[in-house]
Amino acid sequence: MFEDLKGKRVLVTGASSGIGACIAEQLGSFGASVGVHYRGNKKGAQKVASNITKKGGKAALFEGDLLQSSTAVKLLKSFVASFGGIDVLVNNAGGVYGAKHFLELDEESWNNTLALNARAPFFLAREAFNIMKGQGGGKIINISSVSAKYGGSPQTIHYGAAKAALDSITVGLARAGAPYNILVNSVRGGFIDTPFHKKMGRENTTARIKLIPLKRAGQPADIAGMVLFLASKTGDYITGEVFTVAGGD
């Protein structure tokens, strides 16, 4: 079903662990040439790249702090220099800064959360868009969150706002990209079992999981499967959509 991914040049941001690592490895397993972006976890990124090459794909590492406004341009230029173009961009990198009650939220945490989850994906997409126009098309897949649907919790309102902005960017870019065969979609992940939650201080997630209709946490492979669907030929007539993968949440 995904055999046409072989040879596709794909950049996955935040690919050293969790959902990003799974997406990168799944793409590599079908023969894609994958750019594994990371910020500080080089060891994790190296492991992902190694797993990709073992499965017959190609991989290269790209380091960059997406909180820095200049990183998006540098990252895309480095990727294109290495692979000769870009067929798919997966904007996966994301996170929450200052996961505390909004009455105590500081401006730096707000700015950093919006920068990582909305500003960086936009400018990465813009750079990829320019390249894709010249090569007859491409795909941009943004990894969003059900926080955009619910507005986050009192501790993550800024994260929900950032992901809602990302979904809006998706729709706008899809309309602009249609004449050039540049397809843009979002994947809204639900509660996925990754270290993300512990980083936010969530030690006990039982109550949250009980709210999910399917009564279980999702796995990174659940998100990766939708990404593969959109990145391959099966997604060639889909653009401007927001797909929720959240167990009914």
Major beta sheet summary: 7 strands, parallel
Number of strands: 7
Choose one word for the global shape.
globular
Q: At CATH's second level, what is the architecture?
A: 3-Layer(aba) Sandwich
The CATH topology comes to Rossmann fold
The averaged pLDDT comes out at 95
- How far is the N terminus from the C terminus? 27 Å
Count of helical segments?
9
Portion in beta strands: 15-25%
Classify the helix fraction into a percent range.
40-55%
Can you list the strand order of the major beta sheet? 3-2-1-4-5-6-7
Fold blueprint:
Elements (H helix, E strand, L loop, with lengths): L8 E4 L5 H12 L3 E6 L3 H13 L3 E6 L7 H13 L4 E4 L15 H28 L3 E8 L1 H4 L6 H21 L4 E8 L6 H4 L6 H5 L9 H12 L10 E4 L4
Parallel strand pairs: 1-2, 1-4, 2-3, 4-5, 5-6, 6-7
Helix pairs in contact: 1-2, 1-9, 3-4, 4-6
Please provide a written account of the structure.
This protein has 249 residues and is an alpha/beta fold. It has a single domain, classed as Rossmann fold, CATH 3.40.50. Helix content is 45%, strand content 16%. It contains nine helices and seven strands, in the order βαβαβαβαβααβαααβ. Helix 1 runs parallel beside helix 2, helix 1 crosses helix 9 and helix 3 runs parallel beside helix 4. The model has no long low-confidence stretch (mean pLDDT 95).
Short précis:
The chain has 249 residues and is α/β, with parallel strands linked by helices. The protein is 45% helix and 16% strand.
